[in-house]
């Protein structure tokens, strides 16, 4: 059956009428309601929300006129519940319609329905994602769950518009809406916490205090260069492959002067002739906190093994 | 007593009468009845009546697909329906004559 131009209200109404006739044999019910959408569309084309009657009363009229029996009273408790719910809803709708302000409010709330269709799809996909683990933020991080969310939204919106329906969907939607409405606040709160945790984790790994020079993950505090003859060099300026000063410390950085850390001090940079304060001149010296003169750091080796052979400077 | 109550008894013949010359779909039949002056007629009553007359063999039905909208179910009268209509016409004529006379006498 083509459903392309059936208004959602009409489709919903026709569905409710069929539900109210669900006690009839399927063939009988289908015969009775075939073409109903077309007739309703024409009959209620002008003002859908205000003129559509109560679907259950409508179904009863249809049924009696067709000479078909009424359902056995109290056939099932669910039917009784459904009936009570329909009557309650009808009474509320009647009360609302007699109040212009309420009509406007209802109209406004009605225009927000698409947002709810998306929201409930989000809650559902969040639930699925949480069930399988690894997800829990506002938006899916994996392609799979992004796809799940997308599919859920499409289905939810189509249902909301009265498309893609099947028998028994209406009560399913009611239950789903209730569950989604109950869950949405806690889920938003959990998703918020999750997102914040992820951000914290990201900051923890962030490059915040990675200034300086590292060797296998450990910060290098000083560098002792030795010449080819194995003796300690002094005031060697070091740069990396991009010409950036290889600085192990920054202005104000402090450390231990002796191996036992009895005396502490601040790293003392050198000054180059062009007036720059240079933290890349090694070995770095330190200025003790007690105000004494700048001192050398104790080198790890007095002398190291000389380099074998001579390399001629062939770059010039 | 109001017209709605009276209508229930005669809806069958009214429906048969409006499809006697031309087939019609549900709301089409409702519209013809309303145009004829039966403004109170409920659409669900008419659809149910059409279905019942079909089950009784007085009407045939066929579905006309629509390219854009939902399908329409048309009803047409059968020979059995025509004879039913003829019988009920006579019954109604006699009944209404009787009632008119009765009510006129009562008023006098």
Instruction: Provide the β-strand percentage band of chain A.
Output: 5-15%
- Kindly state the percentage of residues in helix of chain A: 40-55%
Order of helices and strands of chain A: HHHHHHHHHHEEEEEEEEE
- Radius of gyration of chain B, in Å, reads 16 Å
CATH superfamily of chain B: Winged helix-like DNA-binding domain superfamily/Winged helix DNA-binding domain
Largest interface comes to: A-B, 28 and 27 residues
Structural class of chain A: mainly alpha
How does the overall form of chain A come out from the CA principal axes? rod-shaped
Strand order of the largest sheet of chain B: 1-3-2
Low-pLDDT segments, ≥5 res of chain B: none
Quick summary:
The complex is a heterodimer of chains A (316) and B (108). Chain A is mainly α and 316 residues long. Helices cover 48% and strands 8% of the residues of chain A.
Topology:
The complex is a heterodimer of chains A (316) and B (108).
Chain A: H1 8-20, H2 26-33, H3 36-43, H4 48-51, H5 55-65, H6 77-97, H7 100-111, H8 113-132, H9 143-160, H10 169-204, E1 213-215, E2 218-220, E3 236-237, E4 254-256, E5 264-268, E6 270-271, E7 277-278, E8 281-282, E9 285-288
Antiparallel strand pairs in A: 1-2, 3-8, 4-5, 5-9, 6-7
Helix pairs in contact in A: 1-5, 8-9, 8-10
Chain B: H1 3-18, E1 24-25, H2 26-35, H3 43-55, E2 59-64, E3 72-77, H4 79-107
Antiparallel strand pairs in B: 1-3, 2-3
Helix pairs in contact in B: 1-3, 2-3
How does this model look, in words?
- The complex is a heterodimer of chains A (316) and B (108).
- Chain A is mainly alpha-helical and 316 residues long.
- Chain A is built from ten helices and nine strands.
- Chain A has helices at residues 8-20, 26-33, 36-43, 48-51, 55-65, 77-97, 100-111, 113-132, 143-160, 169-204, and strands at 213-215, 218-220, 236-237, 254-256, 264-268, 270-271, 277-278, 281-282, 285-288.
- The N and C termini of chain A lie far apart (87 Å).
- The mean pLDDT of chain A is 80.
- The radius of gyration of chain B is 16 Å and the shape is globular.
- In chain B, 63% of the residues lie in helices and 13% in strands.
- Chain B has one domain: Winged helix-like DNA-binding domain superfamily/Winged helix DNA-binding domain (Arc Repressor Mutant, subunit A, Orthogonal Bundle).
- In chain B, strands 1-3-2 form a three-stranded antiparallel β-sheet.
- In chain B, a hairpin with a 7-residue loop joins strand 2 (59-64) and strand 3 (72-77).
- At the A-B interface, helix 3 and helix 5 of A face helix 2 and helix 3 of B.
